[in-house]
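Tutorial handout. Part one gives the primary structure; part two gives the three-dimensional structure as tokens.
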Amino acid sequence: MLGLGIIGWIIIGGLAGWIGSKIMKTDEQQGILLNIVVGVIGGLLGGFLLKLFGVDVAGGGLIFSFLTCLLGAVILLFLVKAVTGRRTVHHR
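Part two.
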């Protein structure tokens, strides 16, 4: 994904973050900027995890980069939800 440049990271990251937020049902809480951040950090997290399992992430291409970002975004959102929990206040 390094060959895409900063614009590629923003586009792929934004798309992956948005789809990841739809999967994890956090889309209502996120704007476009947060979707981009989640997707880019998700890409780094997904790439790191795939390398741990011996997957060569360097020459994967555009679709593989997107799927790596999506995987990382979903994992990141899952972890954020697990740590923060559901902090809704119930009024009676």
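Part three, for discussion. The chain has one domain: 2-81. The mean pLDDT is 83.
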